[in-house]
Amino acid sequence: MNEKAWVYLNGEYIRLKDAKISILDRGFLYGDGLFETLRAYGGRILKASRHLERLYRSASQIHLDIGIDKESLQSTLEELLNRNQLSEAILRITVSRGVSEHGIQLNPTAPTLSIFARQANPLSTEKYEQGVGILISEGTAHRLPHVDPAIKSCNFLPQILLQEKARKDEAFDLISTDPEGRICEGTTTNVFFVKDNILKTPSLSPYLLPGITRQLVLEIAERAGIQSIESEMRSEQALDADEAFLVNTGIEILPVVTINHRLIGEGSPGPLTRRLREEYLKIVEDPDLSC
Fold first, then answer.
1. Among 208, 165, 152, 209, which residue's Cα sits nearest to residue 184?
2. Is position 71 within any domain?
3. Model's pTM, two decimal places?
4. Among 74, 90, 119, where does a domain finish?
């Protein structure tokens, strides 16, 4: 990122080069914090209210006071886009419990709230036209004990290591299964499959983050009259799928054409995947649908 870019830190708009956070911050020391990643199209932030609702719900669950109300935070996001003159952008909100006394006990402290925005860099057209490959890794799904899986915690080491495993095997992402062999999610994605024109995605579980884009795709399918099912799924069903795709805020809907180096369907993005992507792009282009 440009060192002269504007960022938001604890109530102030400052240049990135001037943004400093204490080494005693609990986010740095313990990963004690939350984050949200949002996408702006044409200067409008897609489903901002849903992202902020999840952030504030998660903060309440971990006894964290963000220190600013949702309306003010959304205004801050929009102001940051304006200051950086960004239209197509990725925004990242990070909030930690702030600086406190030594030890892990909770002490009333001011949170550290930071936001940055950067130019969105979409994946290549080739990836959307030709699709990508993924891996399914048995028994690698992870969870934080006593933490709701819907919380986007700053504890991200398992995903980092699994993503590196995928990279070394020249795969776009790695999909984990739980100890019982049920498919869960990717390192930063949710996954969908198509079989006999029915859209399928793993049902919610303690190992699966219910992504904003995941829910949006299910809503798009319902409006389009596409039958969809949330259910337990295993590797054999994934390998037998006619189509597959990944979703998240940044990649939108990304076709998958190989799983564990085996072709899925005809080995090219399928018709239902293409249709859902077309409907998704209509939403991001329509201000009445994107809020």
1. 208
2. yes
3. 0.94
4. 119
CA 246/CA 253 separation, integer angstroms: 6
SS3 85: coil
What is the domain range of residue 59? Answer: 6-119
Residue with tokens 């992504």, as numbered in its chain = 211
State whether residue 44 is helix, strand or coil: strand
Query: Measuring CA to CA, how many Å separate 163 from each of 78, 130, 137, 225?
Result: 31, 21, 11, 34
Residue burial 68-98, b: 16+ Cβ < 10 Å; e: rest: beeeebbebbbebbeebebeebbbebbbbbb
* Residue of 191, 198, 196 lying closest to 234 (CA atoms): 191
176: Cα separation from own chain's centroid = 16
Nearest residue to 96 (alpha-carbon basis) of 176, 175, 160, 23: 23
| 259 membership: H or E segment, kind and range | strand 252-259
For 10-51, the pLDDT digits (tens) are 999 999 999 999 999 999 999 999 999 999 999 999 999 999
229 and 100: one domain? no
**Pick from 281, 273, 284: which is nearest to 129 by CA?**
273
Boundary (domain end) residue, out of 66, 91, 119? 119
Supply 82's token pair.
């304006």
Counting Cβ atoms within 10 Å, is residue 129 exposed (0-12), middle (13-18) or buried (19+)? Answer: exposed
Q: What is the pLDDT of residues 45-78, one digit of tens each?
A: 999 999 999 999 999 999 999 999 999 999 999 9
Do 41 and 138 share a domain, yes or no?
no
Report the DSSP pairing between strands 12-15 and 132-137. Answer: unpaired
